[in-house]
TrEMBL record, chain A:
Protein name: Potassium channel domain-containing protein
Lineage: Eukaryota, Metazoa, Ecdysozoa, Arthropoda, Hexapoda
Superkingdom of this protein's organism: Eukaryota
Keywords: Ion channel, Ion transport, Membrane, Transmembrane, Transmembrane helix, Transport
Location(s), subcellular: Membrane
UniProtKB/TrEMBL annotation, chain B:
Family: Belongs to the two pore domain potassium channel (TC 1.A.1.8) family.
Domain Potassium channel: start-end pairs: 132-187, 463-544
Keywords from the UniProt entry: Ion channel, Ion transport, Membrane, Transmembrane, Transmembrane helix, Transport
Organism, as annotated: Orchesella dallaii
Protein name: Potassium channel domain-containing protein
Annotated Pfam families: Ion_trans_2
Main location: membrane
InterPro entries: 2pore_dom_K_chnl, K_chnl_dom
Amino acid sequence: MSDLEYEQNLWPRIKSAFRVLVAFTFSHVGVCGLVVGYIICGAFLFQMMESHEVEPMLKEVRQLREETAEKLLSIVLKSNTLEEEEFFRLANVAIQNYTYEIVNAISDGYDGEPKPKPLNWTKKADSIDRKEMPWSFTGGFLYSLTVITTIGYGNYAPKTAQGKAMTILYGIIGMPLFLLYLSNIGDILARGFKWTFSRCCQCNWTFIKRRRIDENGEVIEEPAQEEEEQITVPISLCLTLMVGYIWGGGLLFAEWEKWSVLDASYFCFISLSTIGFGDLVPGEAVAAESLEDAIQYSFVFCSLYLLLGMALIAMCFNLMQEEVIAKVRVCGRRLGCAR
Amino acid sequence: MGPNGNSKQSKCSPTRVKNCLRTFLAHLFSHIGLCILVVGYAIVGAAIFERLESGYEIEQRNNKQKNWTSTIMKIRDQYVKELWNITEQFNVLYEKNWTTAVEKELRRFEDDVTSAAKQNGYDGNSRETDLHWSFSGALLYSVSIITTIGYGNAAPRTALGKVLTMFYAVVGVPLMLLWLSNIGTLMANTFKFAYIHICCPKKSARSRSVQKRSPSLKQEPSSIQVKYSVSAMTCETHVVQQQQQQQQQQQLHHIQQADPSNFHCLEKTPRAMMRREQRATLKTLDPAAKQMLRECAEYNVNMSQDERSRMVLHQLHAAESNMGTMTGIEEELSDDGEGMVDVTSSIILPPPLNIDGMEIEDYGCRQTLSEMSSGIGVSVGGSVNGSMGRTGGGSGSQISQVEGTPSRVPLLHRGVDGGPDVVDVETLDEYSAGSIEMQSNKPDRCESPVSSDRVPISLVLIFVVVYIMVGATIFTMWEGWSFLESAYFCFITLSTIGLGDYVPGRSFKSASTEEGHAQLIVCCLYLVLGLAIIAMSFNLVQEEVAAKVKDIARHIGIIKDSSGDR
């Protein structure tokens, strides 16, 4: 093969390879990876954008502290002979103001000085400190996840203007992507489930089928596929599956997070229905103890649970819709609403 | 109503009651009824939750205040004492040392306050004197549940409240979806109508004249699946050969010219097509489709004496002779559902035809014919996230004949000259909007004349953006947020993410005044209307988006062209 021919063959091959790649990306497995990758990117992005916010707040609080110290100093220096009571009174006033300001800062998101307290923001400190700071990677991950699934807990929320703008952009792209993922995965799961279900049913039916052939004496060709496709998974099974998943998740979270079972199931339900109040969020209880590993596991497990749970629900909808529509139609017809 | 009961209606009271009930239910699921139902549901929920939670909240709030005050006082006293000790320690006052020591103490004080705030759940809003669980707050809460926004600023704390929330959501969310789809379709139609008549009056006139030219293939598309167009085409070719109907040939021509790429649908796996096989009901076929079916069945019978085709013919005849109402046949069919499905699936069609150089698989055609006789419906989507009622049903005018349940959106792609509606492929394995809303059976939806235009995507997007901007300005005025923050809030709300960091009502003058109530109610309305607009835009836009995505995909080469150039 001459060089020219080789080159001519190379380009179409590249193109076809590229096509294969893109096709794969939008195929079933690819979409999963795409979604996860997107969330990870989002986590990094938001972490970058929001971490800066803490610094100015820290500076503010430190300044406040210095001012209060000066105030106290002036109190002490005011009179040579300082009575305890007088000091208490005056100091109380100063501290009261200080408290008020701190509480305002807390409501704006201030979280106390990160410990161990680094006065220099070197990279070395980052590895430890970042996890303690509000917008850790896991926090960003959970936040991105809640944005694209539209759950939206709200325990993390962007404070900077660019964070907000970024959220809007991220959501606009991420939500359709997630829908794509759901429809894809729901489809696969539904097919797999139906197949499994029909196999289980067929074990019971092959017996009957043989008898039919014997009686008629003809060879009635009944391809297995036809039977399989006509089987609709009963609604009760789908519902049981969903309820079971929610309840199971409830048990697990109750175990991990030290919530009551009711609280945990309520959390699972609220999350999976994408309502997402955010009053209960996994990882917060553990954060107080600042066990880094535990936080990580908790977030990772929660994310996995949510992703899988929503896929399951998509699958159940997929399986149920046929029956539900048929039943509604029958009801409607009986009642005479439909023509 | 049914043909039988007319004479006896006045006499027989149970029948009359049943009829009343029927009309009542029919109206109930009509537009107004649904609106009222949703509003009523929200209000009832608000009342219930207010009852449950406000008492608890008041109690908690008092406790919290007390706890907080006492905690803070304790901490303060402790630290002031500490400061005193430090001062005493320094017999000679060196400012610097003293200041450093004091600052250290203050820092520890800060930490204690922060952790106390966290433990207490005190987020520093001492200025918040208004209850979360006033009636308007509870209304916002119930709306946020059924729309799945879920702000979280007010969340149930009692166990009963939590359980009730779950049940409320289970009923309310589908109800909301139903309503959204309803309103979405209605608004989409209105929008299209307005668009046609305001923006493109010429085209609308032209489309109407085209309609008159082609009565056989009805302009109003019955809900027909993808394959219909193709099977119609293949059947038609032999029909055309046999009958030489000028119009149909013209239609065929239109179909071919409009978008030959429509035919690649045939390459879809038989599995996928079989997946969507539903109980066929003759009822859903419009006359043109029945004609096709008859022709094909006749062909089959002539060629191969197929029993099943004979059955089909028989049923068709019976159907026609049955006064137009198909209920009788349908009962038969639905009982005999299995049989019907078998029949249609094994009708043998004429050998593969070459149309414009394209091969049409016989097998594919067989499948398509079977599917043709199943109606099409739009069904509840596979997206759990369908909170926005991603409305499907391209033209919206197939509502009147919603039956059957493919799991994907049927898309209607209008031909260039306003010709027959060629159904485009919905390879929604690639396309995300697989979720469609459930259309309730509405009697006799008289649709606006179907236009050849689609509303351009840009127009719809602009509309949505304008709505968000309007909302942003309103909230900027009322809440004192910046414009960006208000726009961000509108986006977060309308996408049903609902973070809850910004919630309307926090800085209302006072939630207990008339004005405050009114403001909160206006917020709820904005919310709900915004969701409806989003549903409408999905409805309008999805055909185009699907078509464009398919074009791109085909261009890139994900989807193989049926014309075989690869």
